[in-house]
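User: Hey, quick favor. My workstation is busy. Could you predict this chain's structure for me?
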Amino acid sequence: MAQELASERERLEKRGFGLRMGFGNRPAVIVIDYLRAFTDPAMVLGSNLDKEIAETNRVLDSAHKYNVPVMFSVVQYEEKDAADGGAWNLKHKGSPTLMAGSPGVEIDPRLHRELQDVIIMKKYASCFFGSDMVSRLMARSADTLIITGCTTSGCVRATAVDAIQYGFRPVVVREAVGDRSAPAHEQSLFDIHIKYGDVVSVDEVLNYFETNIARRHNQP
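Assistant: No problem, here it is.
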């Protein structure tokens, strides 16, 4: 699959797809759904995301250091039988693990979350759908959304697509996003790169913070 994607990437890039947008001037970080329901492999919706969480913490530590706004999304349902999840719940059996007040909707405690970080509540894939995400970003004059979290083929991809549709630059951090399906993960990163956003490494994000954001705040 990797060879096929590399070939497709080369073919499409020759046609003008996959251009690099680059970082803007005012970034914000979103950590998508790193909840126990998704990070515990024993749960219906879960998978092993230990490495991805460790890489996300590198992004969080740097973002906090340079006062970059950080948001965490939480998907949860309040109505009986998760009726507020609509028809989406017909596609999987994981809804009971995402009920409000259940252990599954707790943010993974390994994440380096700080008191000033914002919580975005949602019920569907995109962090923008049915939430106040746009208002939160506009209030902070953000122009770039740095995306970490899970799953790459679901909520990460949906958020990246909506981000560019709302006028923000989506930057997906390759090592800091994960999926329970390896093929879906790779295909989604390919798709995002070709059409919707930049897929970059953690090191690229940290360098951006250290060279651009630090200078703005007159930090060494």
